[in-house]
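stage 2 :: seqdesign
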């Protein structure tokens, strides 16, 4: 069985039907060229012409939309439209004489491939600060414009403080990209849907009452919510305004009497009156300014995620602002028992699809005619057949050979590469199911690996196992655990330029805060949080390696001799897919490491074996054999 669907003729029919119709019609349309053909000179000059007309020395173009989402609608792809860079984080500082594209370590290779070097200069961010770059680039000073709906209060506050003493100022303006982008797509109009209680595990009335009680205790009269996944979680709703993440573009105000005003485009939620109930009022997005001006303070605002425009409106109304974290973030991150059970079920269906794919890969790759696009489309075919897939949770990464060293690589028609013997292939993918969001990475080999590849892979595996087995006292954060995954690589003089893990939502964002495993993750880890565990290693121009499972935080019992008064926490693994044994140097693993690996594979076989086809089961049994 594959997720409850017969694997014989019916499954074969489903797969063939999907390949023939869905993939040809939809999937291949997503493999656009590496850059937009008109990015660079024409678009940059149009922007600069608008800057000159307004007396501006520069204009900031972020990747973010008004909701600070990682995924943005087509209308909000301003950074990609201007520069050609399609990564999920970064921004451009476009000046009259130069234009810097600021990207973090995940995108250093990608940005060089995508932007026109003659017109855009990649800048290593956050190592390089915007203020320092501007001071060096604008020695005579000048006004740099920005759209206050696309930048947070914290972001602009930090930059302005760093510019103190210089002659450079940051000026609020209308969005200049929207003025020069002649064929900018319309704003998304997707319908908002109710999220059933059987999956959410808690009525939204109870969530609202719980958060309203917290507001009262803190002395706050209201909270402004700007993050779509927070609003989706609070009201038990989902949407379709951005690809791969089931959220709707909206703002909301929660008051201390548990009432909510939901600001969404008319028609998107009108049919949900019964679900929302009398304590949730609908209003148009343009009504938010007036509603904010009428609030009595203190009003809670998250300055790390709310647009600067929100605080400007409140400040102009002389409303007291309480800068605190979005009140939904922590309770949303701590999944309830229903959400955890849903995640477990989703991961087992997803694991069956992955096993079918990996079995197919091993039977096909050595023939020498597969490409990266073939892998992406085939994997989604198996996910569709595995029952219940609503969407993939992000654009599938299928990087072979040197493309695997691009951390957030996305294959295009230009970069599509044929697999070669000896290639390492990084497959990072996931699914959106009503009962959970999945994200898993496996690095696999075409044929026989080199010994250096096996050594690097095993170091990454050692780090992944170390996180999987971690036990720590309650109160520690991801920044305290991140190094556990890196020590084996550090000892070999190696490392990776991304966090070890991110939070994951419940049929929501595949990247969720505040939880994480990285040097910057300071939120204490708590039971119910779901995170990724994904150390890696990347050798530019040669290969990439990443191994990822999702894990959840649980209370851990005390071992013999432990302090009875000290509460301990641990991780439990949710993902069950074999790890390529051909790439493991068992001699590099400790006895505990080998025991964990063999126990994990035994559990994979037990949980996933009954769900897969007969050919895949034979492959799975061999893939899960003890080291």
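stage 2 :: out
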């Amino acid at each position: 069985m594959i997720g409850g669907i017969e694997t014989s003729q019916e499954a074969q029919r489903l797969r063939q039907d999907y390949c023939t119709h869905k993939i040809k019609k939809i999937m291949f349309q997503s493999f656009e060229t590496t850059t937009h053909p008109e990015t660079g000179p024409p678009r940059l000059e149009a922007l600069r012409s608008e800057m000159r007309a307004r007396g501006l020395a520069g204009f900031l173009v972020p990747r973010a939309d008004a909701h600070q989402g990682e995924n943005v609608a087509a209308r909000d792809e301003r950074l990609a439209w201007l520069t050609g860079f399609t990564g999920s984080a970064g921004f451009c500082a476009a000046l009259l004489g130069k234009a810097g594209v600021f990207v973090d370590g995940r995108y250093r290779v990608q940005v060089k491939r995508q932007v026109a070097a003659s017109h855009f200069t990649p800048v290593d961010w956050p190592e390089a600060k915007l203020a320092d770059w501007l001071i060096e680039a604008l020695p005579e000073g000048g006004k740099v414009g920005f759209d206050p709906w696309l930048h947070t209060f914290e972001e602009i506050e930090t930059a302005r403080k760093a510019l103190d003493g210089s002659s450079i100022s940051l000026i609020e303006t209308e969005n200049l990209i929207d003025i020069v982008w002649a064929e900018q797509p319309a704003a998304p109009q997707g319908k908002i849907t109710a999220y059933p209680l059987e999956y959410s595990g808690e009525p939204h009335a109870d969530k609202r009452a719980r958060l309203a009680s917290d507001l009262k205790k803190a002395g706050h009269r209201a909270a402004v919510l700007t993050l779509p996944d927070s609003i989706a979680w609070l009201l038990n709703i989902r949407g379709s305004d951005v690809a791969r993440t089931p959220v709707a573009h909206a703002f909301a105000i929660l008051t201390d009497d548990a009432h909510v005003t939901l600001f969404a485009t008319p028609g998107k939620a009108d049919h949900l009156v019964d679900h929302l109930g009398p304590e949730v009022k609908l209003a148009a997005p343009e009504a938010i300014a007036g509603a904010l001006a009428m609030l009595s303070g203190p009003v809670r605002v998250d300055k790390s995620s709310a647009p600067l425009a929100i605080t400007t409106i409140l400040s102009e109304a002389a409303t007291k602002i309480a800068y605190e974290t979005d009140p939904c973030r922590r309770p949303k991150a701590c999944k309830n028992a229903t959400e955890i059970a849903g995640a477990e079920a989703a991961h087992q269906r997803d694991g069956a699809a992955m096993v079918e794919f990996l079995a197919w890969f091993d039977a096909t790759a050595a023939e020498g005619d597969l490409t990266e696009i073939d892998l992406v489309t085939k994997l989604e075919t198996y996910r569709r057949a595995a029952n219940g897939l609503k969407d993939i949770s992000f654009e599938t990464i299928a990087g072979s050979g040197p493309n695997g060293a691009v951390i957030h690589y996305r294959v295009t028609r230009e970069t599509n590469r044929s697999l070669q013997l000896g290639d390492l292939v990084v497959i990072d993918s996931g699914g959106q199911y009503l009962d959970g969001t999945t994200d898993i990475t496996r690095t696999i080999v075409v044929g026989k690996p080199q010994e250096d590849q096996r050594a690097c892979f095993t170091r990454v595996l050692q780090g992944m196992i170390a996180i999987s087995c971690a036990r720590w006292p309650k109160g520690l954060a991801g920044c305290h655990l991140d190094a556990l995954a890196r020590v084996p690589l550090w000892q070999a003089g190696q490392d990776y330029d991304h966090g070890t893990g991110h939070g994951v939502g419940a049929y929501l964002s595949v990247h969720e805060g505040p939880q994480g495993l990285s040097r910057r993750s300071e939120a204490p880890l708590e039971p119910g949080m779901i995170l990724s565990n994904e150390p890696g290693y990347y050798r530019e121009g040669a290969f990439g390696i990443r191994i990822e499972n999702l894990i959840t935080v649980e209370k851990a019992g005390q071992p013999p001799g432990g302090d009875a008064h000290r509460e301990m926490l641990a991780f439990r693994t949710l993902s069950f897919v074999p790890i390529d044994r051909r790439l493991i140097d068992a001699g590099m693993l400790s006895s505990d490491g080998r025991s964990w690996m063999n126990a994990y594979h035994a559990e994979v076989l037990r949980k996933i074996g009954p769900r897969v086809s007969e050919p895949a089961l034979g492959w799975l049994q061999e893939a899960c054999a003890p080291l």
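stage 3 :: structure notes
- Residues 1-29, 33-37 have pLDDT under 50 and may be disordered.
- The first strand starts at residue 58 and ends at 62.
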